[in-house]
């Protein structure tokens, strides 16, 4: 029989990405992922379908009624209320205005008060601070590079999302460079567009561009150098204001770290993380612990 009260230090986690949801049981005190199950997820589907996938993933953990839950979810999102705010961003638009707190509590079922919602980049940053490349630092920054750019700013393990030392809402993707949003300059789609403008050839995202750059394609290398040089200069300014000691980098683009790192040229150590998912699960659990 399942316990009717939460097990101290044990948190059930849903880590939601652009094409998947990973469900995990996390022992926060032991810094261990006890169970991890990855499921495909189409963010373009309707709310009923998406919630069904999330609930099925949650049920796969064989949860009990007294469990704590943490959900790492990309923004825009009202994390305190547990309400999705996606609209016109080509993913999770079907969830706009939906209370995931209420919907998941009903579908699993679970206590609505047992849920903590956290930004996915913040979950990643917290995980690296708890047990990773940022452990032992007072001020750390986490960046995720993929279809867009996520960021998290931590001071002694606390998320900093306001004030003069961090970007608006703690999100680097809200920043402009010479009047152009940074994600229109540095993202998978921006890199593909940049190479197409130079050569008339379409590449398969950053992965394809990296293969060309490593093989000696000068146009591919210049596209990478230009884009990440811009991001590096933007980050350098904010890292200085924040007093960051380290930057941890996750996301699908870390597979091209050998090309990205020299172009960023950051003033503090930058450390790529291979298992971003583990960090996000641990960080979300840390945020949602009892």
Strand element count: 14
Order of helices and strands: EEEHEEEHEHEEEEEHHHEHEH
Which stretches are low in confidence, meaning pLDDT under 50 for 5 or more residues running?
A: 1-5
Question: Cα-atom Rg, whole angstroms?
Answer: 19 Å
- How many independent structural domains? 2
| Derived structural class | alpha/beta
Major beta sheet, specifics? Answer: 5 strands, mixed
* Share of helical residues: 25-40%
Instruction: Briefly note the CATH topology name of the largest domain.
Output: Nucleotidyltransferase, domain 5
What top-tier CATH class of the largest domain fits best? Alpha Beta
Give me the CATH superfamily of the largest domain. Answer: ATPase, nucleotide binding domain
Percentage of residues in DSSP E strands: 15-25%
Whole-Å distance between the termini? Answer: 21 Å
CATH arch. level architecture of the largest domain: 2-Layer Sandwich
Count the DSSP helices.
Answer: 8
Note the overall shape: globular
**Average pLDDT number:** 94
| Largest sheet: spatial strand order | 3-2-1-4-7
């Amino acid at each position: 029989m399942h316990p009717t009260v939460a097990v101290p230090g044990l948190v059930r986690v849903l880590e939601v990405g652009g094409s998947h949801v990973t469900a995990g049981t996390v022992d926060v005190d032991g810094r261990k992922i006890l169970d991890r199950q990855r499921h495909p997820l189409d963010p373009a589907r309707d709310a009923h379908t998406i919630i069904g996938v999330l609930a099925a993933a949650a049920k796969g953990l064989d949860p009990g009624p007294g469990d704590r839950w943490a959900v790492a979810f990309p923004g825009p999102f009202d994390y305190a209320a547990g309400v999705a705010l996606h609209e016109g961003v080509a993913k999770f638009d079907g969830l706009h205005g939906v209370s995931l707190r209420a919907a998941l509590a009903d579908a699993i079922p679970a206590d609505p008060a047992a849920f903590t919602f956290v930004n996915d980049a913040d979950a990643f940053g917290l995980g690296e601070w708890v047990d990773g490349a940022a452990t032992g630092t007072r001020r750390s920054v986490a960046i995720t590079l993929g279809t867009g750019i996520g960021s998290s700013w931590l001071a002694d393990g606390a998320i900093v999302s306001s004030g003069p030392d961090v970007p608006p809402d703690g999100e680097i993707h809200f920043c402009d460079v010479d009047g152009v949003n940074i994600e229109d300059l540095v993202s998978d789609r921006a890199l593909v567009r940049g190479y197409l403008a130079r050569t008339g050839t379409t590449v398969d995202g950053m992965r394809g561009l990296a293969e060309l750059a490593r093989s000696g394609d000068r146009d591919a290398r210049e596209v990478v150098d230009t884009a990440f040089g811009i991001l590096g200069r933007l980050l350098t300014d904010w890292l200085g204001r924040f007093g960051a000691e380290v930057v941890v980098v996750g996301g699908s683009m870390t597979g091209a770290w050998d090309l990205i790192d020299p172009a960023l040229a950051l003033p503090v150590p930058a450390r790529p993380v291979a298992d971003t998912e583990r960090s996000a699960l641990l960080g979300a659990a840390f945020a949602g612990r009892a």
